[in-house]
Amino acid sequence: MLYCKECGHQNNSSDRFCSECGQALSQNREASPSLNQEKPLKSKMKWTKKQLIITISSAIAAVLLFVGFQIGSVLTDKDRLIDQFGTALLDGDTKKIVQLLHSDDSRLEITEENVQFLVKHIEENPSYYTYLIDSLKSQSAFLENSDGEFSEDELDEYYHFDHPFYLTKNGTFALIFDHYSINVYPFYINLATNYANTTIFINDEEILTTDEEDVVFEYGPFMPGYYDFKAVYHNDYASLETSESLSLFSVFDQGYFLDLSIFADYITISNDYLSLSTNSQLYINDTAVDYDLDSAEPFGPVTLDGSLTLHAVLDFPWGSVATEPVAIEGDWIDLVMDSPFAEENSEALFHSILHYGVDFAEAFNQGDSSQFTNITESFREELKDEIELLKSYDETWVGEFIKVEIDPNMYVELNENDEYTAYANARFHYDSVYTDSSNEHIETSLDTTDVELALIYNQEENSWSIDSEYTNWYYDPTNSIELTSANLQ
User: Fold this and answer.
1) Is residue 421 within 8 Å of residue 455, measured between CB atoms?
2) Does some domain include residue 53?
């Protein structure tokens, strides 16, 4: 046997070259020991460069694989994830919390600002932290021991919770390790409000303005948290708002119905002469309002703090009359109108009464009812009968008209024939006497007659005709208008 000096490989004695390294064996033959010499010890095997590279690389790969497995198992450990989440919550580390949370709803934006609500909630409710972390750990144990098939009882035991955080398997890491995440349950709520042009605010941020009345709409998603909702409505007569606060930390709040309806004040407007008017116009702070007073519908919304004044202008066949302004301080407004006549359109009626007083003196002095110029024919017949009755008793009325006092607060009504009848109180002053027709020595004296007159309006002629006269025993002409014959000039 021949041994190669180069690599120590044992070769056959007939070999000329080493079968291992290719070294010539000729020198080995010459130096081969005799049979009776002691057999030399086998030389230590040497590794080639290639063998060394392969061996070292394999060892490094094995170490890296082991280390990588250990790191991967740590990075994807469910309990480590939960512990990091719990620590971040206690430390108020909103940046870390954002990194650890996930949502299956791509519309839900998780930010440091909105996770601050969760930190605040835990600060104010320490027991919620324990409840949250314990439930996540229960879920972790459940996922660890499960085979992916969950019975209803198991789900009830490990996933029956009302907070909006839950542990889920979310793919794999490095194709080996299960990857888990803490998911956030997004909230959607139903908002309702009742006025068009109402602006909705969430935490003082404007989100929309309604374009119709009585709307209900879904809004979201929301992160768990505290939210202040406000509905604001403005018009020319009111600034109104309502607000509600909502805490969204329970899954049972999903689809919560939040009513932001604004409860406003409306007013009912009345006027004694509204039914007699041919048209009407409402004014608030001297600005015309698009509102039909005849509708009897409540008007609003308005504020009742007295900052608004209300009045109306009513049109009658003889002219327009404005009511006195009234501060809006209650839900019932009576637009007081002492008379459906303004100073500028009551002249025709007053002159009709004045004419009647003057004509009375002429007609009774002459005993002739045709002297009345502005009375109805039915009333003329009554006065004619009165004159004839005096004649039948050989009596006569002698005197002259002095003046008349008229109460400007007159009442008007509209009858079934669409005729306007005004009722006016008046006091006529005469220098007169009732005496025998044959009396040659007549002495007159000042006399007054208090009456209530009924006058019918002639729309075509814009004039008033006396239709009746009744004695008024209770007339008090405190605020009366005084007219004499001179006013007819």
Assistant:
1) yes
2) no
Q: Is residue 360 located within the same domain as residue 324?
A: no
Contact, 180 vs 143, CB < 8 A?
yes
pLDDT, one tens digit for every residue, the chain (489 residues)? 677 777 777 777 777 777 777 777 754 444 444 444 445 545 555 666 666 666 676 666 555 554 444 444 444 478 899 999 999 999 999 999 999 999 999 999 999 999 999 999 999 999 999 999 998 998 888 777 665 555 556 555 555 567 789 888 775 544 456 778 899 999 999 999 999 999 999 999 999 999 999 999 999 999 999 999 999 999 989 999 999 999 999 888 999 999 999 998 999 999 989 989 999 999 999 999 999 998 889 999 999 999 999 999 999 999 999 999 999 999 999 998 888 988 888 899 999 999 999 999 999 999 999 999 999 999 999 999 999 999 999 999 999 999 999 998 888 999 888 899 999 999 999 999 999 988 888 899 999 999 999 999 998 888 999 999 999 988 887 789 999 999 987
Tokens of 486: 């001179």
Q: Is there a domain that residue 59 lies in? A: no
Contact 164, 249 (CB under 8 A): yes
d(CA 228, CA 310) in angstroms, rounded, equals: 36
Residue 129, in any domain of the structure: yes
102, 151: one domain: yes
Residues 278 and 240 in one domain: no
Residues 192 and 180 placed together within one structural domain of the fold: no
Neighbours of 323 (CB within 10 A): 23
Does residue 368 contact residue 387 with C-beta atoms inside 8 Å? yes
What is the distance of C-alpha 234 from the center of its chain? 10
Residues 283 and 370: their CA atoms lie apart, in Å, by 48
- For the purposes of burial, counting CB atoms within 10 Å of the CB of 223, is it exposed (0-12), middle (13-18) or buried (19 or more)? buried
Cα–Cα distance, 200 to 242 (Å, whole number): 10
Give the three-class secondary structure for 406. Answer: strand
Structural domain harbouring 161: 77-184
Q: Are 452 and 470 in contact (CB under 8 A)?
A: yes
The CATH number that applies at residue 229 is: 2.60.40
Q: β-strand 10-11 against 299-302: which pairing, if any?
A: unpaired
The CATH number of the domain holding residue 450 is 3.10.450.240
Q: Do 405 and 357 have their domain in common?
A: yes
How far, CA to CA in Å, does 310 sit from each of 22, 83, 301, 306? 122, 68, 14, 10
**Boundary of a domain, candidates 288, 304, 337:** 337
Domain count, the chain: 4
CA distances from 115 to 134, 142, 197, 222, 254 (A): 20, 27, 32, 11, 18
| Statement to judge: residues 193 and 139 lie in one domain | no
Complete DSSP assignment for 30-94:
HTPPPTTSPPPPPPPPPPPHHHHHHHHHHHHHHHHHHHHHHHHHHHT-HHHHHHHHHHHHHHT-H
